[in-house]
Amino acid sequence: MPTPRVAVVRETIAVEHLVVQVEGDLRHDGEGCGAVCTFVGVVRATHQGRRVRYLEYEAYEPLALRAFFRIGEEAAARWPGSRLGIHHRVGRLEIGEASVAIAAASAHRAEAFQVCRYAIERVKQIAPVWKHEFFEGGEVWIEGATIDPDDDAAREEAFRRACA
Amino acid sequence: MRITIRLFARLREIAGSGELVREVPAQATVQAAWRALVAEFPAMASHEPSISSAVNAEFARMSAVLKDGDEVAFLPPVSGGGGKRRVHV
Fold first, then answer.
1. Which ipTM value was assigned to this complex?
2. B26 burial level (CB within 10 Å; 0-12, 13-18, 19+)
3. Which overall architecture, per CATH, does domain A6-162 show?
4. Average pLDDT by consecutive 10-residue portion of chain A (164 residues)?
5. Do B59 and A149 lie within an 8 Å CB cutoff?
6. Is the CB of residue B79 less than 8 Å away from at least one CB of chain A?
7. Preferred mutation among B46, B48, B78, B87 to probe A, highest tally of A CBs within 10 A
8. Helical H segments across B1-89, by residue range
9. CA nearest A155 in B: which residue?
10. Which one of 3.30.70.100, 3.10.20.30, 3.30.70.20, 3.40.50.1820 gives the CATH number of domain B2-75?
11. Nearest-Cα residue of chain A relative to residue B50
């Protein structure tokens, strides 16, 4: 069964399946696929000096899937011929477990690295996924910026980081 | 008319539920639904500058007009940064 290119999952993320999927998507298109760059975000044991016990992720799943598709479209507009796979896990995650995986396929490695970096920056900006940190002594929701998919400045910042 | 309100993270905790069904006047906007919610749960008021919204699982502005049966979601900030803070009105 093919792996969906975007998914919100409750079990361990299967990065290798995502790699196979995006490579297959690109294999017979244009130059074909010459590189797949992956990023895996994992639960860190510390955050801002706190000892993290575990995290709980929560998503608005249908909108998260649309956000992931949108990021794929944004990337394809910047890097024609690129393909993206994005899987995010929800529920309780222990230290060291993968919370998010990105697989970026392109004909050549330079673009694959850029697309991968762009995708994780955009996931952090616009995906409706919330992180609840349980640390030694308390718990806190990790909040950054307001979600705004049309914020050009945020999109440009992600692009700048991708190409840095 | 009747709408479903979806709440997440801190907002969900304040309401004690991630899903509420509420009556709102015909032609109510997302903003009006939010104000009614704040009237019911005053602790949400301080979150207004940082939330964004969606209607039927599509990003929407607070000025969007609702129809019967719509699902409105209020979205607290997410963990990533990089963008400027901006209020949807």
1. 0.90
2. exposed
3. Alpha-Beta Complex (3.90)
4. 87 96 95 98 96 97 97 96 97 98 98 98 96 96 90 94 94
5. yes
6. yes
7. B78
8. 9-15, 30-40
9. B83
10. 3.10.20.30
11. A146
